Amino acid sequence: MTLPSILAFAGLCALLALTPGPDTFLVLRYSLVRMRAGIAASIGSAVGSLIWAAAVAFGLAALLEQSAEAYRVLKIVGGLYLVYLGVSAFLASRKGAGKLELEPPRVRLHSSLAAGAVSTLLNPKVGLFFLAVAPQFIPQDSASIGNTMLLGAVDAVVAMVYLAIVSVLASRAVVWLRRPRVTKTLERVSAGVLAALGVVTVATSAE
User: 144: Cβ–Cβ under 8 A, 6 or more apart, which residues?
Assistant: First the structure.
């Protein structure tokens, strides 16, 4: 693959990353609690994207394109997972309501990393993106597996950098607005968006 092709793919990934999606709101949710948790979630999302690239490289993701039922089931499961994350985050914010916290609560980094990875893995649109776009950037006379993994790594890095920036900006904003009422409101809004995305995903998949 040529450098211009890789840069063109990276630019496409950057444009897609700027479009808010479940991963963006998931990272935002964790960042409002602790910046490291948000960054861990962004790394998890990148890992999930890389796994999808591997699935495409070895032909596993093609099953989603061939089976509408498999695509629908995976989309519903992913939607339900987002609902679970949103509801649990909202309940956690209610549990801490009324308490003046001088320090943000501790969040296990491996939990936020796993949430980011699982959320991306349960989003079939990521796999279909690689199925549809990757072949256009891979020369026909080259190794498709290696080049697909290279494009997957590019997408993972772009997504991780963007989501990490979102995490840093969100956490800085919370520090600047360190008022319990404002923080709780932001947490509940992000939790509500996650749950709403999950409900919409399940509803559209069930049609």
Answer: 57, 135, 138
Q: HSE of 20 in the Cβ direction (CA atoms, 13 Å)?
A: 9
Distance CA 101, CA 169 (A): 21
Joined together, the tokens standing for residue 191 give 């939790």
Tens digit of each residue's pLDDT (9 = 90 or more) over 147-199: 889 999 999 999 999 999 998 888 887 666 656 666 667 677 777 777 787 78
Type of residue at 176: W
Q: Is 141 exposed, middle or buried (0-12, 13-18, 19+ CB in 10 A)?
A: exposed
Banded model confidence at residue 207, pLDDT cuts 50, 70, 90 = low
| Spatial separation of the C-alpha atoms in residues 155 and 50, rounded to whole Å | 8
Residues shown for the chain: 207
DSSP string, the chain: --HHHHHHHHHHHHHHHTS--HHHHHHHHHHTT-HHHHHHHHHHHHHHHHHHHHHHHTTSTHHHHH-HHHHHHHHHHHHHHHHHHHHHHHHHHHHTTT---SSPPP--HHHHHHHHHHHHHT-HHHHHHHHHHHHHHS-TTS-HHHHHHHHHHHHHHHHHHHHHHHHHHHHHHHHHT--HHHHHHHHHHHHHHHHHHHHHHHHHHH-
Integer Cα distance of 15 and 34 in angstroms: 27
Angle between helix 3-17 and helix 144-176 axes, rounded to 10 deg? 40
